[in-house]
Each structure stands twice: as C-alpha cells, then as structure tokens.
Amino acid sequence: MEFKDGSIIYPLPDENLLSDKESKWRVNLPVEYREFIKRYNGGTPIKDSFTCNNHTYAIDRFLCILKVTGEREDEYYDIGVVRTQLEERIVFDEDLVGTELLPIAVLFAGDFVCLDFRNNSEEPIVCVWNHEESSDLNPVTYMVSNNFEEFLSLLTE
User: Fold this and answer.
1) Rounded (10°) angle between helices 31-40 and 15-25
2) Which residues are CB-neighbours of 50 under 8 A, at least 6 positions away?
3) Helices marked H in the chain
4) Ordered structural domains, the chain, with CATH
5) Is residue 82 within 8 Å of residue 90, measured between CB atoms?
6) Segment 45-90, tens digit of pLDDT
7) Is 85 exposed, middle or buried (0-12, 13-18, 19+ CB in 10 A)?
8) Handedness of CA 143, 145, 148, 154 (dihedral sign)
9) φ, ψ for residue 70 (rounded to 5)?
10) DSSP string, 123-145
11) Whole-prediction pTM value?
12) Alpha carbon 63 to chain centroid distance?
C-alpha cells in the first residue's frame, strides 16, 4: 500500500502501546489492523476512495495511535482523541462498558470509517459512521466490508 510522502505519524505504535489501548477500549484489534497501524500510523493513502451505500467516499487520512501528551498538533488524529470528541454519538448503549464503534479513518466531509465490534468482538466489520444522521446514542452506520483486509482491497484512486 502506498501513502503520501510525509503523511505517516511517528513514532509508530509498539505492541505495548497497542495492548494498553486495547485494554482501555476493551477490544481486541484485528491482527491485520495491528500490523497496518504499526507500519502506516495516521498515513494518507494514495488509493483513498471507496464506494458504500451508493456513495463514493474519500479518506482524508487514517487515524493514528499515539501516547497522547497534549504537546503535539498531530495528536488531533489519535483514535482515542477522536473517540472522546465523538463521545455519545458513536455509542449505542450508555451503560455498555467498552467500545462498539472505533474510528480508524477520517473521511472527507466529517464522516469516519470505523471498526464495528457490535456483533463480533474478535472480527469487527468495517463501516462508515455518518455524522449528519447520527445523534447521541443513535449512531448511523453503513457496512463497507466484512473485515479490515477486505476494506483495504476496496480502495481505489
């Protein structure tokens, strides 16, 4: 997979940071996604478009996983920071402990690509979260693919 020069955000996450985030979010990231984020953390792909629900979407950039300190501008793209900003708009049940939708990429115009753990905590599907149609405790999503690897295969220029 190719990425725009200078778009990958360093330092790349290591196994310890990924494990810490998984524990905090109460999910197990798919192996394919773990390997992807360890190489392309926050990158902007050259092949950035995909079709879902009769609409073509463009990825602005994949989100990253960082040790957030509040000292870097690119922390704005950290999954945990984005997750906190979206708060109850990506939650279906306020009493649930853990993560149902995990944003992994920013789309043009404010939507996000998410890993959707609702039906399978080990193999999440990939969906688009629609920011305009979603409200607190009522996220609106559209399924894109059965898994992360399949999602990557859908990307075109």
Assistant:
1) 130
2) 56, 57, 59, 144, 151, 154, 155, 156
3) 15-25, 31-40, 79-86, 148-154
4) 15-154 (3.40.1580)
5) no
6) 999 999 998 999 999 999 999 998 888 888 999 999 999 899 888 8
7) exposed
8) negative
9) 85, 5
10) S-EEEEEEEEEEETTEEEEEEEE
11) 0.93
12) 6
The crossing angle, in degrees rounded to 10, of helices 15-25 and 79-86 is: 20
Q: Helix, strand, or coil here: 111?
A: coil
Is residue 123 within 8 Å of 143, Cβ to Cβ? no
Report yes or no: 71 and 34 within 8 Å, Cβ to Cβ: no
Q: What is the pLDDT of residues 144-156, one digit of tens each?
A: 999 999 999 999 9
Altogether, the residues listed in the chain come to a count of 157
Which tokens belong to 57?
């979407």
Residue 129 CB burial class (10 angstroms; 0-12, 13-18, ≥19):
buried
